[in-house]
Amino acid sequence: MSQPVLPRDTIAAIATAIVPQQGSIGVVRLSGEKAVTMAKTLFHAPGKQVWDSHRILYGYIRNPETKELVDEALLLIMLSPRSYTREDLVEFHCHGGIIPVQQVLNLCLEAGARLAQPGEFTLRAFLNGRLDLTQAESISEIVGARSPLAAKVALAGLQGKLAHPIHQLRATCLDILAEVEARIDFEDDLPPLDEGEICNSIEMVLKQVKSILATADKGELLRSGLKVAIVGRPNVGKSSLLNAWSQSDRAIVTELPGTTRDVVESQLIVGGIPVTILDTAGIRETVDTVEKIGVQRSRHAAASADLVLLTIDAQAGWTPDDAEIYEQVKHRPLILVINKIDLASGNNIKSLPQIDKIVKTAAAKNRGIHSLEQAILNIIETDNLSAADIDIAINQRQAAALTRAKTALQQVQQTIDEELPLDFWTIDLRSAIQALGEITGEDVTESVLDRIFSRFCIGK
Predict the structure, then answer these.
(1) Alpha-carbon Rg for the chain in angstroms
(2) How far apart are CA 131 and CA 143, in angstroms?
(3) Parallel, antiparallel, or unpaired: how do β-strands 226-232 and 307-313 relate?
(4) Which of 398, 421, 329, 449 is CA-nearest to residue 169?
(5) What are the phi and psi torsion angles at 186 (to 5°)?
(6) What distance in Å separates the CA atoms of residue 457 and residue 144, rounded to the nearest whole number?
(7) What's the rounded Cα separation, in Å, for the pair 77 and 98?
(8) What 8-state DSSP symbol labels residue 390?
(9) Which residue has the higher pLDDT, 21 or 354?
(10) Which residues pair with 60 in a beta bridge?
(11) Which is nearest to 99 in space by CA: 21, 39, 35, 31?
């Protein structure tokens, strides 16, 4: 496999999100062998401040040609190898806002730096041996975490809790391969191969590979979250349910049916899992052009959601219109929400279809929300996607590599069972070793790195 080339030039990028009037500090980052030299041409540190590693200097950024003052700033110096990239690295901590930060970046580029590619700072950290590939991916996941639990799992990856077992499994496979190849090359000089021990080692590796692979669904749930659509007839309390759940007035609530004309989204955390709630327009036949578009979007939201909350009015009971909507969504994971239970007299809810999950709420009085969340978590538990007690959670790339490793190890077992020559054992052992090496970056191509780091933000 081709080996990535170690970087030589100096790169620059804005390392903080820049939103007008939203950030007090903006950071411009330089990394490479000329980073400090470039900083000295742009930054004036008054007095006798020392340009040593891991010091913060106070001063002014000036245009080296016009001497025009650009900003008052701090300069952070981190010399190789004690930096994020293991290269000389400096950061200009400027006033927030796009104008001063962009001006400083332009000065860096004019001084000879190259604009960094997405994720290039972290790529250099990987290429220079500061991080392995699982840790680099964990950094991206920390930045994009949508819940505290997702951030916790990503931080565990950064600390090596995925890399460590993968390294051990790969080392075991390498040991097995060495034993087998030694018997091929020096059969007359070594004792016979202990096939029983080899089989036990392969089974142990395979068991651990399957165990780690089982976290893929949990990882996807933490990263992508759950999309939940609230659907039902007009005026059954869908918007009130969204407002009570999100503890905000995200949706307009009136006594008039058809108030909601478009899909309204709200982001929540339920049991550590990010949940996107979609409040949809009431589904009914209508001649109103705008409402008709809203109804179409409601049906599309229900069809694409991971979970549907079919909401009905406890006062009206189960109606033919409810039954018609149920026919449209019954193929999706479903919870029946009986709302306005506080206004119902007696038991109006009759002739219900066979729905396993039923929750009663009084959204206007903020009742039943906890039961609804628990019902959602129960569905997740049933699908073996519980986010509780997660230590590691692999991503899709890692899952694909582990699947190849599992297949290769199973093929080794079959080869042994069929009593094929030792040369055949080594073919699949090498495949398993390569797949495990792709996870940590010990065996990876530039094209794989390009795909991984292209998803990073530019300044990371």
Answers:
(1) 29
(2) 16
(3) parallel
(4) 398
(5) -130, 45
(6) 10
(7) 23
(8) -
(9) 354
(10) 44, 72
(11) 21
How far apart (Å, rounded) are the C-alpha atoms in residues 92 and 30? 8
Round to whole Å and give the CA distance between 265 and 398. Answer: 31
Look up residue 312 and give its two tokens: 């009905």
DSSP 8-state class, residue 3:
P
* Residue 183: burial class (beta carbons within 10 Å; 0-12, 13-18, 19+): middle
Q: Which phi and psi angles does 70 have, rounded to 5°? A: -100, -45
Mean pLDDT over all residues of the chain? 84
Q: Quick one: which of 348, 412, 332, 359 has its CA closest to 172?
A: 412
Residue 100 has pLDDT above 80, yes or no: yes
Q: Residue 352 and residue 123: Cα distance in Å, rounded? A: 57
Give which of 208, 116, 140, 132 is closest to 169, Cα–Cα: 208
Sequence-ordered alpha helix ranges (H) in 144-194: 148-158, 163-185
Question: Could you give phi then psi for residue 313, rounded to 5 degrees?
Answer: -95, 120
DSSP 8-class letter at 432: H
**Residue 318 dihedral angles phi and psi, to the nearest 5°:** -80, 115
Measured distance CA(16)–CA(212) in Å, rounded: 34
Residue in this structure with the two tokens 């340009």, named with its chain if needed:
51
**Strands of 334-339's sheet in order across:** 264-270, 273-279, 226-232, 307-313, 334-339, 358-360
Q: Which two tokens stand for residue 273?
A: 């899992």
Per-residue pLDDT of 109-146, as tens digits, reads: 999 999 999 999 999 999 999 999 999 999 988 888 88
* Dihedral sign of CA atoms 30, 36, 38, 39 in order: positive
Which amino acid makes up residue 172? T
List beta partners, residue 364. Answer: none
- Strand 226-232 to strand 334-339: parallel, antiparallel, or no bridges (unpaired)? unpaired
205, pLDDT greater than 60: yes
